[in-house]
Amino acid sequence: MGIIQALKDDELQNSYVYRRDFSETLSPIDKAFSFDRFEGALSNKNINLKAMLVGKEAVVVGLGNSSFQDIIFRAGIHPKRRASDLTGDERYALYNSIKQLIADRIRLGGKDQFIDFYGKWGSYKPSMGPNMKGKNCVACGGAVEHVSIGGGQVFYCPNCQH
Question: What's the half-sphere exposure (Cβ side, CA atoms, 13 Å) at 159?
């Protein structure tokens, strides 16, 4: 996915994409994206995890709902948890999941539902998300469930994600 916008210099500050993606907000592909910086950005955030990782209040840029679902699945964290309630180990698991997911998606050319500029399909298959509706968890075999959070459906495994 991408965006192409033509803006005059004085219009940049009013562009959501510019303010979000070119701000001081952390990017998981930046070498400066360390655990210490990530943990510092989440300290005392009393918001749900989806708002913390996706959208206007996010502490990182470039993650969408699909990424969010895979990240929390990999980290073993329930989607309704609040950032302020995470233990140190859970914060570290979340950070590692973000780093691993981004590396995997880049290495595999993006999600398997998208085509790049050269007509090549991505080969990253999400572990969690709408593709899991009515299916069982790839890790434990339990039934995948979904909840509404932040205006969208979030799929998760109640056995693997606490």
Answer: 9
Find the domain containing 75 and state its range: 9-156
Give the pLDDT of the chain (162 residues) as one tens digit per residue: 567 778 888 887 777 666 656 667 788 988 889 999 999 988 778 899 999 999 778 889 889 999 999 999 999 999 999 999 999 999 999 999 999 999 999 999 999 999 988 999 999 999 999 999 999 999 999 999 999 998 899 999 999 999
Terminal Cα-to-Cα distance of the chain (whole angstroms): 31
Residue 128 included in any domain: yes
DSSP 28-51: TTSTT--HHHHHHHHTT--SBHHH
CATH number, domain containing residue 148: 1.10.8.50
| Euclidean distance between CA atoms 14 and 32, whole angstroms | 26
Does any domain span residue 1?
no
